[in-house]
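Incident review: delayed structure delivery

Summary: a single-chain prediction request sat in the queue longer than the usual turnaround. Root cause was a stuck worker, restarted by the on-call engineer. No data loss occurred. The affected request and its eventual output are reproduced below so the record is complete for anyone auditing the incident later.

Affected input:
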Amino acid sequence: MPIQFLDIRTSQAISNGVPSGTGSFISDVAPGTFLGGIGVITKGALQQNKNDIRVQLRLSAGVTSEISENFVTFRVYRISNGVTTLIFQGNQVVPPATIIAGIVASDFQPPFPTNGQIVYQTYVQANLANVIHLDGPVSFNGTAATGTSP
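Output delivered after worker restart:
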Protein backbone atom coordinates (compact mmCIF):
# COMPACT_ATOMS: atom_id res chain seq x y z
CA MET A 1 0.00 0.00 0.00
CA PRO A 2 1.76 3.14 -1.18
CA ILE A 3 2.00 6.14 1.10
CA GLN A 4 -0.28 8.96 -0.10
CA PHE A 5 -0.42 12.58 0.95
CA LEU A 6 -4.13 13.48 1.12
CA ASP A 7 -4.57 17.05 2.35
CA ILE A 8 -3.31 19.89 4.51
CA ARG A 9 -5.59 22.54 6.05
CA THR A 10 -5.21 25.64 8.21
CA SER A 11 -7.62 27.62 10.37
CA GLN A 12 -6.29 30.90 11.70
CA ALA A 13 -8.87 32.43 14.03
CA ILE A 14 -6.62 35.25 15.29
CA SER A 15 -3.59 36.05 13.15
CA ASN A 16 -1.99 38.54 15.53
CA GLY A 17 -1.97 38.79 19.29
CA VAL A 18 -3.62 41.64 21.19
CA PRO A 19 -2.11 43.34 24.26
CA SER A 20 -1.78 40.93 27.17
CA GLY A 21 -5.01 40.39 29.07
CA THR A 22 -7.27 42.29 26.64
CA GLY A 23 -8.66 39.38 24.58
CA SER A 24 -12.01 37.77 25.34
CA PHE A 25 -12.35 35.52 28.37
CA ILE A 26 -12.15 31.77 27.77
CA SER A 27 -15.34 29.95 28.77
CA ASP A 28 -15.23 27.74 31.85
CA VAL A 29 -18.18 25.67 30.55
CA ALA A 30 -17.43 22.51 28.53
CA PRO A 31 -16.54 22.13 25.77
CA GLY A 32 -15.16 25.68 26.05
CA THR A 33 -14.42 28.46 23.58
CA PHE A 34 -14.28 27.43 19.91
CA LEU A 35 -10.80 27.99 18.47
CA GLY A 36 -11.08 26.71 14.93
CA GLY A 37 -12.13 23.97 12.58
CA ILE A 38 -10.75 22.28 9.50
CA GLY A 39 -12.04 19.69 7.04
CA VAL A 40 -9.38 17.39 5.63
CA ILE A 41 -10.23 15.86 2.28
CA THR A 42 -9.77 12.08 2.11
CA LYS A 43 -11.70 11.16 -1.04
CA GLY A 44 -8.45 10.71 -3.03
CA ALA A 45 -7.35 7.73 -0.94
CA LEU A 46 -6.72 4.58 -2.93
CA GLN A 47 -9.14 1.75 -2.14
CA GLN A 48 -6.43 -0.31 -0.42
CA ASN A 49 -5.49 2.70 1.78
CA LYS A 50 -8.94 3.73 3.01
CA ASN A 51 -8.54 2.00 6.38
CA ASP A 52 -5.08 3.43 7.08
CA ILE A 53 -5.65 7.20 7.26
CA ARG A 54 -3.53 9.16 9.72
CA VAL A 55 -4.12 12.81 10.59
CA GLN A 56 -1.58 14.98 12.41
CA LEU A 57 -3.10 18.02 14.15
CA ARG A 58 -1.34 21.07 15.64
CA LEU A 59 -2.82 23.97 17.59
CA SER A 60 -1.28 27.06 19.16
CA ALA A 61 -3.12 29.74 21.12
CA GLY A 62 -1.96 32.84 22.97
CA VAL A 63 -3.49 32.84 26.46
CA THR A 64 -3.08 34.99 29.58
CA SER A 65 -4.12 34.37 33.18
CA GLU A 66 -5.13 37.44 35.19
CA ILE A 67 -4.33 35.92 38.56
CA SER A 68 -2.06 33.19 39.87
CA GLU A 69 -1.29 30.07 37.89
CA ASN A 70 -4.37 28.44 36.34
CA PHE A 71 -4.93 25.92 33.59
CA VAL A 72 -6.86 25.42 30.39
CA THR A 73 -8.13 22.21 28.82
CA PHE A 74 -7.74 21.78 25.07
CA ARG A 75 -10.13 19.45 23.23
CA VAL A 76 -10.15 18.20 19.65
CA TYR A 77 -13.26 16.60 18.19
CA ARG A 78 -13.57 14.56 15.00
CA ILE A 79 -16.84 14.81 13.05
CA SER A 80 -17.19 12.05 10.47
CA ASN A 81 -20.16 10.10 9.11
CA GLY A 82 -22.51 12.06 11.38
CA VAL A 83 -20.64 11.08 14.56
CA THR A 84 -18.77 13.51 16.84
CA THR A 85 -15.89 11.92 18.77
CA LEU A 86 -13.50 13.46 21.29
CA ILE A 87 -10.04 12.39 20.08
CA PHE A 88 -7.79 14.55 22.28
CA GLN A 89 -8.04 16.25 25.66
CA GLY A 90 -5.15 17.75 27.57
CA ASN A 91 -4.40 20.43 30.16
CA GLN A 92 -1.91 23.28 29.94
CA VAL A 93 -0.76 25.39 32.88
CA VAL A 94 -1.19 29.14 32.29
CA PRO A 95 0.97 31.45 34.43
CA PRO A 96 0.01 35.08 35.15
CA ALA A 97 1.60 36.10 31.85
CA THR A 98 0.92 35.63 28.15
CA ILE A 99 2.09 32.31 26.75
CA ILE A 100 1.65 30.51 23.46
CA ALA A 101 0.10 27.22 24.56
CA GLY A 102 -0.07 24.39 22.10
CA ILE A 103 -0.89 20.79 21.42
CA VAL A 104 0.00 18.13 18.90
CA ALA A 105 -2.57 15.38 18.42
CA SER A 106 -2.93 12.44 16.07
CA ASP A 107 -5.95 10.61 14.74
CA PHE A 108 -4.87 7.11 13.69
CA GLN A 109 -7.10 5.08 11.39
CA PRO A 110 -10.36 7.04 11.81
CA PRO A 111 -13.40 5.54 10.05
CA PHE A 112 -13.32 6.42 6.36
CA PRO A 113 -15.82 9.25 5.76
CA THR A 114 -18.56 8.51 3.24
CA ASN A 115 -18.53 12.16 2.09
CA GLY A 116 -14.74 12.22 1.60
CA GLN A 117 -14.00 14.72 4.38
CA ILE A 118 -13.16 14.49 8.08
CA VAL A 119 -13.90 17.61 10.12
CA TYR A 120 -11.88 18.52 13.22
CA GLN A 121 -12.87 21.20 15.73
CA THR A 122 -10.82 22.58 18.61
CA TYR A 123 -11.95 24.15 21.88
CA VAL A 124 -10.27 25.55 24.97
CA GLN A 125 -11.90 25.63 28.43
CA ALA A 126 -10.67 27.62 31.44
CA ASN A 127 -10.64 26.08 34.91
CA LEU A 128 -12.20 29.26 36.40
CA ALA A 129 -14.60 31.87 35.02
CA ASN A 130 -13.34 35.27 33.89
CA VAL A 131 -9.63 34.80 34.63
CA ILE A 132 -8.01 33.51 31.42
CA HIS A 133 -7.95 35.59 28.23
CA LEU A 134 -7.66 34.37 24.66
CA ASP A 135 -5.20 36.99 23.41
CA GLY A 136 -3.99 35.22 20.30
CA PRO A 137 -2.58 34.40 17.92
CA VAL A 138 -4.58 31.20 17.29
CA SER A 139 -3.68 28.68 14.58
CA PHE A 140 -5.01 25.16 13.95
CA ASN A 141 -3.47 22.96 11.26
CA GLY A 142 -3.96 19.41 10.06
CA THR A 143 -2.24 17.08 7.61
CA ALA A 144 -3.70 13.81 6.35
CA ALA A 145 -1.88 10.87 4.77
CA THR A 146 -2.60 7.20 4.24
CA GLY A 147 -0.87 3.95 3.32
CA THR A 148 2.18 2.13 4.59
CA SER A 149 5.59 1.51 3.14
CA PRO A 150 6.10 -1.57 1.02
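Verification: The chain has a mean pLDDT of 94.
Action items: add queue-age alerting; document worker restart procedure.
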